[in-house]
Amino acid sequence: MNEFDLDQSKIRDFNAALHNPSKATDQSTWKVTNTKGRHAIAVGINSALNLQIDGHVGYYCAGMNQKANVTINGHCGAGVAENMMSGTVTVKGNASQYAGATAHGGLLIIEGDASSRCGISMKGIDIVVKGNIGHMSAFMAQTGRLVVCGDAGDALGDSLYEARLYVRGKVASLGADCIEKPMKEEHKTELKELLERANITDINVEEFHRYGSARTLYNFNIDNVGSY
Amino acid sequence: MSDEELHSWLKASASFPRNVIADIQRAAKTGLYDIRGYGAKRHVPSFDDLLFLGASMSRYPLEGYREKCSTNVTIGTRFAKKPIELDIPITIAGMSFGALSAQAKEALGRGADAVGTSTTTGDGGMTPEEREHSSKLIYQLLPSRYGMNPDDLRKADAIEIVIGQGAKPGGGGMLLGQKISERVAGMRNLPQGIDQRSACRHPDWTGPDDLEIKILELREITDWQKPIYIKIGATRTYYDTMLAVKAGADAIVLDGMQGGTAATQDVFIEHVGIPILPAVRLAVEALTEMNMHRKVQLIVSGGIKSGADVAKALALGADAVSIGVAALIALGDNSPDLEEEYRKLGTSAGYYDDYQDGKDPAGISTQNEELAKRFDPIVGGQKLANYLRVLTLETQTLARACGKNHVHNLEPEDLVALTPEAAAMAKVPLAGTDWIPGVNGM
Fold this sequence. Notes:
B: eight-stranded parallel sheet, 16 strands, about 35% helix
């Protein structure tokens, strides 16, 4: 176990150790304490290590993660797992704005609530939120899947591309070009698999609604000008 | 009656000249604003409105063909462990694979490499060809984050956070569906053939306080190795420069309203932002006030076309300049050799600005494989290298005439203005006077 106490070590040294291929080997275990809302913790990891973060974190925790399995025992500031490529990031608490923004892959699990713009411009990531999400979530989301076990705020999926959204609770409103779509068997299978990966076994996939792009704004057309 | 005779007595309207009439007619017909590439076409005060005071009695020139006048510049000396060393103070601006063909991007790399300067990626990310042919490659972090990934971030020589560009400060970008080939679509995680919008603001931060943290993240990801540039379109330049410094930039890229684009509304290109002439002076004032001039390097762009422009930008305090449209012209854009083909597109050599259409007969601003194949990246690279050499020689010639043994030793004192407007904007005296409007006298 590699342990860092951020009251004793600089974040720069901690991140550099996580980037050191001789230390950050696959399956190596890491723990960091006294995070105290600090920013840019555990960013740019590029190996399949296991990291436990004890405490609340600031902006961009686990940003651009590749391969690593990161668990945050606390709440997160803005942009957790932004631009993640692969691996898994689990937030035991709540997440602030832009969770999983622009991320290309991997799985982000938020056990509490996520704030506004969750999954903004997502590009392949899977996000599972056990609680609620805020307004403008999945704005311009390109690909990947967003699962919300609670409610979604206003303008869900505004200007959505090909990402698929599953919401169990109420949706305050849908954004431009986002529509409800039928839940077919393939979607139920996909959703069940995502819930299982997030260790959620007590929620029935039948309770979810699916949302996606109407694809009417994919090419600029003057007839659609009122939609913007 | 001939056209010439007819036009000799007809009276044209200053408010509604023929091109304005054509604009109104086009708008009425299509219901769409005009989207085009290139930069602003209107006249604005520019470096052409300044002149150098060559050495004479009170100043001592360097011999034009014999004495050394250095041109090297180092970018990123503030925080980065590995600053960028350039042989010349002229860099290639960010232009995307997508907006340009792979061959054109390769040529930009070849040309820049030949003279020891850098190129810059664009929306769509970094292509292997681009990395291979550019030994100094700046990787842009744009709002769209198309193609953004940590592997390329680590491969880059510097990172440029794009807040805006001179052609459209406050606006995003749009790569129209006709230019979205299978490869471009794949790099951007979007279906082929749809319009690809590049948002006007970043998805995971708002405001300069957040940006400071974003920069911290990028530095931590890359172990504080890479210089981090911030690119801004010229608008509220004095304050933007200060905020960029406060946010932690190693270098600032400042793009004036004359700067080019691949596709934007004409109304945006012509009516938003300020010219590079006042912008460079405002940025230098901000840097000087913060005691950061020459510590945070300033790269300016927007209509740079000659060594005179380069020398004047440096004299006003820039550390380097960047070129985009001029580099494309050097590659072969708007060549008279293609006049017949331009005519088929309803335009003419010297006027072609439909970079958004993907029908570029020069094979530069296109993703059409047949058109792109016409463009030879080796020949194009040689032409660009030649052009960059000429810009450098011209800059040196002017610097020597002012007695400078390094182009960075040029200074505002070497300049005068031809017009009161340029004098006010550049804060150098009107030629033949000691009058700087807004500084001394009225």
